[in-house]
Write a structure and sequence with these properties.
The chain has about 140 residues and is mainly α. The protein has 5 helices and 2 strands, in the order αββαααα. α1 runs antiparallel to α3 and α3 packs antiparallel against α4.
């Protein structure tokens, strides 16, 4: 029961991150004009426009979240160590690609920071759960 509660809480946080990523105004891109003014445009994580300008991180985070939404419910039924390692690696991948735009981009939205916090929380929860399972054996 405890393991199911942990998995469901991780799933709920991942669904929250997915909702934030689907919001169409979660990625800011800016471009300059010849007169030196900045034009801000807003896109979603799923949009290919930032990727077309070389910023693949948001799209990778979105794909990682979709994969986690597929794998986390499956972990209720598949109780293998390799499957849990895949989930941990996906969280690490998501954390890495959530951090990169915060250092590179000139502007960030609150969704970017919140998605990063959700990924970090999920990673800590899953990691602590795996350590507790290893300690029990």
């Amino acid at each position: 029961m405890k393991k199911k509660l942990i998995i469901l809480s991780v799933l709920a946080l991942t669904i929250f991150a997915f909702i934030l990523e689907v919001i169409p105004f979660s990625v800011i891109m800016y471009s300059g004009t010849q007169s030196g003014q900045e034009i801000l445009r807003y896109y979603g994580y799923w949009s290919m426009m930032p990727a077309g300008y070389g910023n693949f991180c948001y799209f990778f985070v979105f794909i990682t979240t979709c994969l986690l939404l597929l794998f986390i419910p499956l972990s209720l039924f598949i109780n293998k160590k390799a499957f849990q390692i895949v989930i941990i690696c996906l969280f690490l991948f998501g954390i890495t690609f959530s951090i990169i735009p915060l250092f590179v981009a000139k502007y960030s939205t609150w969704q970017n920071y919140t998605v990063l916090v959700v990924y970090c929380l999920n990673f800590v929860i899953v990691l602590l759960d795996s350590f507790l399972i290893m300690m029990e054996k």
